[in-house]
Each structure stands twice: as structure tokens, then as C-alpha cells.
């Protein structure tokens, strides 16, 4: 299969592609109107093996064209896509494109606590169904080809952790895609944020890949240097959603000379042509119209004829069918195993978070224990029974918050990585989600046990009630963690996710069962308590503590905490499953609607 893939050519052709977004135009006087914004306007073209560069000013439609080719844009209620896109004269869908192509996003979403080699090894495990020894050799060879040998054992890093450079991060992202031996490689602004020398080395690398592997490489680029410009095989110039040039790089200067736009002899051609298609007032509108008219008259017919000629080649059709059937069958069990190992590694290397949570548990345990130290237990005292109830309420509400907040922060940061990797077909949403929650069950059990062992005995609670109390405490911690995952899966911005998660603490406080009898709520709002984890945790803990005592003022009676404690345990488990299930559905939906 490897030898066949290196000899085939993948040709992407597209005909009459139009893309428009429907936007609401707000008005204070009239109703909001639907306004159509055209991104691509009946463009046709093709990409062959080699370096295909798409240039244009911001908003010209460069990235949109890439996403249309990659099937990341589909028709929806606010998006309308028309036209035909084919690979080797065959229509294809998103899944088929991923089987034979790689897509490198502009932003390098990588996990900061993995090394370059570990990242490549994980991608090889997920993409390749070959013996482990062959995978390792392939990883080492690719690291050498990408010139990442010196940093292969260095953490990726982020703002908080020192890691590899920007150019090395970009090569790492490209390498992850190359492990799947793609015949097509699509990159969005691969040189963004890199200096000129690093950018040149990167494009040289892509050039060598295209020549060595017979690969069709397509990317958008903004203001390439003259050295980079000379590496391009084909150039596409986009202006306001239309082509003004499409063809070989060496022919572009001659073409523009014929339409009276002469590139200065000692200037960078890329800078000159981009300046021509940049929007600067009314003059640019007239220039765009002239350039697009000249393209229609002189180049468009030749492009369309070339598309027909390329698509008539029967060999290219056979190559496409062979490629989309090249699917690496990785079992769900193997996938889950590798994801679990990676997740455990990520958790163990996040030393700042581990240290912070450990210190939080110790400090909060000692502080809470000091405040409620050795509570008095006068069975005739309303105050004493109420103080014990307050302690149980505070400890359950606090445990929910302590587990929820760190998970919101972690999951919000990891969410873009998940979306990128699951859309690269590295793994399934189900395998990822299980690998995420299984280790968290352990961490959400260890910290409550530590806190429970400290606080429970400092306060002087009933000895025989401790095992059940610990069970409820651990369950409440896991429910808080699951709600943190849910919050992080809903919102893209960590700040918004944290705000949402924090807001959920308000109904926990109001409907937890301490400040108002559960039967005293109005029917239209009282139902909220039944989806409030703290209500069940507090009810179970209170019944567990007070059911065998002789308090005259028993909280079970005056707070109406009459639910069976095991029913409460079951409801906590149900909420844990429910929050996780909703988060799983949201992540699955987000995967389908990445663009």
C-alpha cells in the first residue's frame, strides 16, 4: 500500500463554488433583516501534486476555500454552499477526505505536557495498524525528516511551561498529519507567527515532502518572502471571493504584464500582487472588476478545459477508490488503552494543579475543622443540632465546588485539542470520554478521602456514620467533576465556562435543603431542588448522622429531610451519569459542527 500511495496523484477539482452566510442585520426601527454575505462567488479550479499556494488579502475567502475543499463547511440554516467538488473525478464526503488527507489548522492546538516524540508515538498508535516496532521506526524517521531530533524529548509547553519554539510546534503539527501518509495535505497559514527564516525552512520542508511523496499540498499564506515565493509550483490569487489568477508561478508575471500590471523588477512579486488585490477605497473596486474580467476572458476557459481533461483520466479514479478504502482498523479497546495511558501521563505531569489541589484540600480541611472543631452535642439544644446540619451542608457544597472548578479550567483548555484530534480521526468521542472520566474517578476519590479523614474527626461526628458519609462525600465530588466537564464542553471560552459553573452554585445554595424546608417551595420553582446534587448529598449525610440520635430538635424532622439515604445515593449516581451523558452528546455534536 505504501508504494502504491507514493505513485498516485490526487487531483482536487471544484466547479462553480459559491458560499454565502446569512447574517441578521439589526435595526432599532424595523425587524432584524437577513443579509447575505458572499464569501466565494462561483469559483472553479484545481490543485495538483506539488506546492499550491492561495494568496489574498484578509477576508478574500482563502480559509473558506480550504474548508470547503476539506468538507468542513456544509449547508445549514445560515450557510449556503453550491457547486461541485471532486477528487480524481469522484465526489467525496468528510470522512473520505480524512482517510486520504491531512488538515493542519492555523492554531497549533497541542497538549503542553507531552514531548514531541510522545505526541508522534500516540498519533502513530492511533493512525497505523502495523507492529509496534515498525511504528517506532516510522516515528524516529519522521522526527529526523522534520529536523526535530534535538527537541524530541522536550515538552511541547505553553505560556506557563517552557517548551519548543513556534517553528518546532508547527512542524510537530505537520508531522502528526504525515504519520497517516496523506496524499493531500491542507494547511491554513502555516507560516503565521513565524520569522522569515523559520517560514522559509518550513516551506522548503513542505516542498521536499511534495516531491518525495507525490503529495498535493495546498495552503493559504500571507505575504511570503521572495525566497518562499520561488518555491511555489502553482499560485491562486483570490480577491473578494473570486480568482484573479490561477496557474503556474513562473507564468504569473507574464500574465499580469499582458493586462498592463507590470511587477517592478527588483520587488517581491508576492507583495506586488497582494497589493493589487487589497481593498483601498473605490479605486480597488474598479481594479477588482477589471482583474476578474480579464481572468474570465483569458484564463477561466483554460482552467475549465484542464479540469475536464484531468477528470477524464480513468487511472486517477482508480487511485481515489483505492485511497479511501485505506482505513486503519484500530479497535476501541486498543484506542481506550492508549488514551488512558496518555490521560494518566497528563494528570501526573500537571504538578502545579496537583500541588494546588492538595494544598487546597489540606488548608480547607484544617480551616473547616477549626471553625467547627469538636461541636457540642447537647440533645436538647436546637443550636447544637443545627450547627451539625450546617457543617454537613457546608462540607457537601464545598466539595462540589472544589471538584467542579479545576475540571472546568482543565477541560476548557483541552477541548480544542479534542476537537482537532477527533476530526483527524485519531480516536472516537466515546473512547476519549471514557479515558477522561475513568482517571478522574480516582482523583475525585483520593482528595475527598483526605479531607474527610481530617475534618470528620476534628468536628467530632458519629464514628459509626463515617463509612457512609465518606461514600456520599466521594459521590458529591464526582458529580461536581462531571458538571465541570459539562460546563467545559458547552462553552468555547474558559471564562464563560467558569462563569456558568459558578452560577450553578447559586441554586445549590438556595435549594440544598438547609435554608428552606423542601415542601415550602412554590410548585413552579420547587422542582429545581430535584436536579440539585447538594440537596441529595446533604439529605443523605443528615439522615446518616441523625437517624440514630436522640436530638429533641432533629433536622430530619424540622428540615423535612425524609428521603431515604440510599435513594439519595442513587440520585447522586444518576446525576453523575446524566451530566456526563449530556457532555458526551455535546462533544459529539461539536465534532460534527467543527466549522
From TrEMBL:
<feature type="transmembrane region" description="Helical">
    <location>
        <begin position="496"/>
        <end position="515"/>
    </location>
</feature>
<dbReference type="InterPro" id="IPR050352">
    <property type="entry name" value="ABCG_transporters"/>
</dbReference>
<dbReference type="Pfam" id="PF19055">
    <property type="entry name" value="ABC2_membrane_7"/>
</dbReference>
<dbReference type="GO" id="GO:0005524">
    <property type="term" value="F:ATP binding"/>
</dbReference>
<feature type="transmembrane region" description="Helical">
    <location>
        <begin position="352"/>
        <end position="373"/>
    </location>
</feature>
<feature type="transmembrane region" description="Helical">
    <location>
        <begin position="524"/>
        <end position="543"/>
    </location>
</feature>
<keyword id="KW-0813">Transport</keyword>
<feature type="transmembrane region" description="Helical">
    <location>
        <begin position="563"/>
        <end position="587"/>
    </location>
</feature>
<dbReference type="GO" id="GO:0016020">
    <property type="term" value="C:membrane"/>
</dbReference>
<dbReference type="InterPro" id="IPR043926">
    <property type="entry name" value="ABCG_dom"/>
</dbReference>
<keyword id="KW-1133">Transmembrane helix</keyword>
<feature type="domain" description="ABC transporter">
    <location>
        <begin position="23"/>
        <end position="265"/>
    </location>
</feature>
<dbReference type="InterPro" id="IPR013525">
    <property type="entry name" value="ABC2_TM"/>
</dbReference>
<dbReference type="Pfam" id="PF00005">
    <property type="entry name" value="ABC_tran"/>
</dbReference>
<dbReference type="InterPro" id="IPR027417">
    <property type="entry name" value="P-loop_NTPase"/>
</dbReference>
<keyword id="KW-0472">Membrane</keyword>
<protein>
    <submittedName>
        <fullName>ABC transporter family protein</fullName>
    </submittedName>
</protein>
<keyword id="KW-0067">ATP-binding</keyword>
<dbReference type="Pfam" id="PF01061">
    <property type="entry name" value="ABC2_membrane"/>
</dbReference>
<feature type="transmembrane region" description="Helical">
    <location>
        <begin position="385"/>
        <end position="401"/>
    </location>
</feature>
<keyword id="KW-0547">Nucleotide-binding</keyword>
<dbReference type="InterPro" id="IPR003439">
    <property type="entry name" value="ABC_transporter-like_ATP-bd"/>
</dbReference>
<dbReference type="InterPro" id="IPR003593">
    <property type="entry name" value="AAA+_ATPase"/>
</dbReference>
<feature type="transmembrane region" description="Helical">
    <location>
        <begin position="454"/>
        <end position="476"/>
    </location>
</feature>
<dbReference type="GO" id="GO:0140359">
    <property type="term" value="F:ABC-type transporter activity"/>
</dbReference>
<keyword id="KW-0812">Transmembrane</keyword>
<dbReference type="GO" id="GO:0016887">
    <property type="term" value="F:ATP hydrolysis activity"/>
</dbReference>
